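User: Show me a protein chain along with its predicted structure.
Assistant: Here is one chain, sequence first, then structure tokens.
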Amino acid sequence: MYLLYLDESGSTNTEYFVVGGLAIHEQDAWSLAQRLDQYSHRLPGALAGTEIHADHIRQGRGRWRNVPKSARLEIIQGLADLLVDFRGTENSAVLFGAALHKASFTRVDPYERAYEDFFARCNGYLARLANEGDRHRCVAIADKSRLESTLQTLMAGWRATGASTGAAIGPMSSYAEVPVFVDSKASRLIQAADFVANSIYRAYATGDATLYDQLLPLFDADDGVVHGMVHLNRGHRTCSCSPCASRRRPPRTEGAG
């Protein structure tokens, strides 16, 4: 069984909307959560044990207001290092994301489209594992969202019949249940998903790809194609970002160097 933790970044007023997160084998979820919790408890003073919220840390909001920017950026970098270095007994965490340029999708609901493609990424990963004889189901666990009831209804349809707004996918049969929603304060792995989503958002919405580039090797990829990350935009045929460019490369052949 895999657990897919996810969160979103962006709002109704932003150019981009992002869904991002990580899938981890059930045997490794506790270990990664413990490492994140230990990291949080090593933070100085009153910050010890606090919720890890990427945008609040970066922007110096709330209890981070009096923490110097250099210290906040160091904390964020430490989180990226933790995810990159983590090795579970079954597998490392596998990242997934969908960055949607809203102006490119005026005829469909952009939030539904982003979530649909995000869930399709992980479904495709698990289908590929199944084809290799490693069969798993997945449960998606998300932060509390205004879209909670909508996504649960949509997932019921996606599991049965597949896409409804253009993603080239079949039924999302890898999901054992509709998404479960929890308070991010109670889940270190939801906080990790928030970190992933925020790193993707900053790369596409602000041009700051520092953390995203570091995390990129963790996104699901096969045969040179970054399947785990998609940049949904009308200019994808000429976009130079790694996921878009990888889909334009010819597949490798047997014996190729």
